[in-house]
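Quiz preparation item.
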């Protein structure tokens, strides 16, 4: 449960503190135009695609945005929930549960969730906090491992929005939590709870979102953060480390990406006679297209068609109680001196 609030000096705080939870993004609906708007915004970010802007915009508008939205619509249709995309639904639940816990503990802060691309927008949520008299804002990108293309992009965008204000609020952000105890403990508990119900696999694949190798060569610490998370997770799982594998998914384009590739690992395991494999994706704190469709649909089919017999995807942390309580405590350590 949550740590004692007197320790943090947070009881009876007022609502001039805002917490902005930010995830990557999602289209408003599965309509082609909404998907096109979302990926157009996402792939126009020069922290995401580091090609010369003029050349890339021609490729993006003449090829990618004409073909990709229809393909993505079929994928989003498979995972869409009645309330919206899974990423939207779980991000909203995280914000609502955090707000409820803070209020139960007499910590009266304002909490908003938003997306870097798509809906709800950073602009809308940030303006809502400022209009609600927030003089101090904690930006919390929901990415355990830091990358210029995720956390870096969010911080840059929020900074641009804030400097347009005449009365700029005090501002800080959480850069990473890839090795935080609460995060690793939440992952371990989530995995063991799954295994207690479904039994143990022959191998566990720990899949992170990929990144172009060129980004790592330029100094992006993402790969190092992933290795750190993988090492800590492997050491605490009480499972044979020799059958736990790290991998990277979601390759886009033709450039070299960090390896090993998740799909290649799964094919190799199937070819070696591994009958059951479980996959967990620690870089995603909420289930989304990359976990529910790419991993649980495409990778499942790949493993089974390559000779594997049993494939299990272990859900993201989503709105698990241990995870939400850990988020609350992490936030409190970052705002205690503001009260």
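Solution:
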């Amino acid at each position: 449960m949550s740590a004692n609030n007197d320790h943090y000096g947070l009881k009876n705080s007022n609502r001039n503190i805002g917490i902005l939870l930010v995830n990557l993004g999602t289209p408003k609906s599965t309509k082609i135009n909404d998907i096109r708007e979302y990926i157009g915004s996402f792939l126009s970010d020069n922290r995401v695609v580091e090609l010369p802007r003029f050349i890339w915009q021609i490729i993006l508008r003449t090829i990618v945005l004409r073909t990709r939205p229809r393909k993505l619509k079929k994928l989003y249709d498979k995972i869409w929930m009645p309330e919206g995309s899974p990423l939207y639904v779980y991000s909203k639940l995280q914000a609502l549960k955090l707000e409820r816990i803070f209020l139960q503990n007499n910590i009266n802060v304002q909490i908003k969730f938003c997306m870097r691309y798509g809906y709800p927008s950073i602009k809308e949520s940030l303006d809502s906090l400022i209009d609600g008299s927030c003089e101090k804002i904690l930006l919390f990108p929901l990415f355990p491992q830091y990358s210029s293309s995720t956390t870096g992009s969010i911080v840059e965008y929020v900074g641009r929005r804030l400097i347009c204000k005449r009365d700029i609020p005090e501002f800080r952000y959480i850069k990473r939590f890839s090795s935080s105890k609460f995060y690793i403990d939440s992952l371990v508990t989530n995995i063991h709870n799954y295994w207690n119900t479904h039994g143990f696999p022959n191998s566990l694949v720990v899949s992170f979102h990929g990144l172009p190798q060129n980004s790592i060569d330029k100094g992006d610490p993402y790969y190092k953060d992933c290795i750190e998370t993988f090492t800590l997770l492997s050491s605490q799982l009480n499972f044979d480390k020799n059958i736990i594998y790290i991998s990277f998914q979601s390759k886009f384009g033709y450039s070299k990406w960090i390896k090993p590739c998740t799909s290649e690992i799964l094919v190799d395991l199937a070819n070696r006679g591994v009958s059951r494999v479980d996959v967990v994706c620690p870089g995603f704190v909420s289930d989304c297209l990359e976990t529910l469709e790419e991993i649980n649909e495409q990778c499942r089919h790949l493993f089974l068609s390559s000779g594997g017999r049993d494939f299990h995807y272990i859900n993201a942390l989503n709105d698990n109680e241990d995870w939400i309580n850990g988020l609350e405590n992490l936030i409190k350590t970052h705002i205690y001196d503001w009260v």
